[in-house]
């Protein structure tokens, strides 16, 4: 058992890393909070003094605020639905014995390691281009007019691109859960006459519930700050402006640091509300 001396030594050795980590997180947050109460316009006079809650009122009363929040939630919900459904299907498929199983698994997981900007450019130019894209050629092959994805179905396009990036992550987590499933239980249910859908609904899906909640929690945290895919493809046009992209426009395009910082605090509040809600769900599933 660890003695009091060894525990104190462990705390002492961990202290520099903890202090550095706290500083790494708290300093930007404190600076954002400070600037959110200031009239700070770098190209129009710099720091013009105290603004109070004016930046918060202006940001939330902006006609773009609530549409950006709803767009963010739609993208998050759409990506979660696609990655969980197809992640479960891929996990079940990859768990089956097949030739070259290891290579297939690597190919399925590979998109997760592609940079968001690169994957967005690939989808924009190779798949969704209305003239030379793969989808355009398929539409022409079947005698239909090509779809201008990034303008006519912009939100759907963003969801498809982001889902392609996050599907490998969900598949990997769910595949690990599928592999931990008791095979004897499935064999016993099959001998008792249970059909494949019954085995999936009453045995496999409940077993995957914990893995699904973990996937939902982790992906939601990252998806709330989606930016690169929108910047590369639509530039926030055609109803794809998320809260993160709106903050970017206020800070860099409008050069209003105070207003953008207030938006950043709203983004932190929204992320914490959703995280607390999801943690309650995860906690219930993990305790079950």
UniProtKB/TrEMBL annotation:
InterPro entries: ABC_transporter_permease, MetI-like, MetI-like_sf. It is found in: Cell membrane. The chain crosses the membrane at residues 12-37, 73-94, 106-123, 155-178, 260-282. One of its GO terms (biological process) is transmembrane transport. Signal peptide: none annotated. It is a multi-pass membrane protein. Keywords: Cell membrane, Membrane, Transmembrane, Transmembrane helix, Transport. It holds the Pfam family BPD_transp_1. GO terms for cellular component: plasma membrane. Belongs to the binding-protein-dependent transport system permease family. This is Sugar ABC transporter permease. It comes from Harenicola maris.
